[in-house]
Amino acid sequence: MKLYQLHSKQALPITRHEAWQFLSDPANLKVITPKHMGFNILTGADREMFPGQIIQYKVSPFPGFTTKWVTEITHVAQGSYFVDEQRFGPYALWHHKHFIKEIDNGVEMEDIIDYKLPLGILGQIAHPILVKKQLQEIFSFREQKLQELFGSIADIPTQLEFKSF
């Protein structure tokens, strides 16, 4: 069983409050997800984020394949971090921590995603060919979209790193 981790950091020239307002609203996931993924929230995004919140999505991670994805918001520290965990969907495990911290001239957003693929050895073969590539594309799109919306802090590059255990 292989466990993977994606670690991303991005700096934005906005306040912690502005970052929290945007990132803690599940409806904004559609804004920062590539359109070709057909991402749509079905239920659960109609109120402010809270621990225990269940959100259901429909997504097409690959052409010709559409699935439901159900996540639970398990932890929330207002203005600082939240955690979502997959309850049903395309991964065998998905645990996504979102952190927001103040830095000079803005905030740093940090994401740490621990995930496991289904299908054993087939999932491990698919990781470098499909999954890792797609996650890189999603986070690249997200970086660009957030820069369009909020600007960037030029001297702090975005970081994206993958590990496996």
Automatic annotation (TrEMBL):
CDD domains, A to Z: SRPBCC_3
Domain of life: Bacteria
Protein name: Ligand-binding SRPBCC domain-containing protein
